[in-house]
Amino acid sequence: MKITFLGTGTSQGVPVIACHCPICSSTDPYDSRLRSSLFIESEGNRLVIDCGPDFRQQMLREKTESIDAILITHGHKDHIGGLDDVRAFNYILQRPAHVYTTRDVSKVIRRDYDYAFKKERYPGVPEIFLHTYHNQPFFIHGLKVTPIKALHYGNDQFVFGFRIKDFTYITDAVRIPDVEKEKIIGSKVLVLNALRKKKHYSHFCLDDALALMMELKPEKGLLTHISHQMGLHKEVEKELPSFVRLAYDGLTITF
């Protein structure tokens, strides 16, 4: 399995527009973060998790020529805002883009991209085939995907992470119920969101993410969905346990 971090930033990315803080002004490429997204290659499958506004730039940077499916964690714009750009793959591959999401998020996608789902469509609009997943395992070309349901905000706004083999990816979570944590146990590589050091109402802060890493004990932990409020990449890295690192755009791991 090969994992590539397409983006590791929060909803505004880093640098943030019109911000002149030390992080946004940094010349270190590790401090520059596109919106969070992931590319997975396993058993001949090429999957993308989330398709944010930077999708086109990410696909060009990685020289990606085909994808088999897109998994959507939730319906916020930084995770679905790039779906229009699947048009290029529609044309090259001569087939629709297969997008896996929940019923509620399907409604958001149909609303935001209504022109792609009309009976009479303008030539060249994206072709999107929506698949609905629930909180139970499903398969994409024989590859098992296990959804993990987490809370994003309050008690009724959810986000889904995914476990594929020994790899688990969770972003935009603020709490994971115990029954869902059971699905993560045994993961060799665990990716969690960590927005900043200060506590946040809808995302794990750094201490939250590290506490969960210590509880679940993966062989390797990586942090993503990082804002400019976290601090400089090289400085934050010095504060982390030996088995946990900050992910960065373009990071690739194989296991």
Structure description:
It is a single chain. This protein is of the alpha/beta class. The protein has one domain (2-254): Ribonuclease Z/Hydroxyacylglutathione hydrolase-like (Metallo-beta-lactamase, Chain A, 4-Layer Sandwich). The chain is built from seven helices and 14 strands. It has helices at 55-62, 77-80, 87-93, 103-112, 178-184, 206-216, 233-237; strands at 2-7, 37-42, 45-49, 69-71, 97-101, 128-132, 138-140, 143-153, 157-164, 167-170, 189-193, 220-224, 244-246, 252-254. The strands form two sheets. It has a seven-stranded mixed sheet with strand order 6-5-4-3-2-1-14. Strand 2 (37-42) and strand 3 form a beta hairpin. The longest helix is centred in the last third of the chain and has 11 residues, at 206-216. The termini are close together.
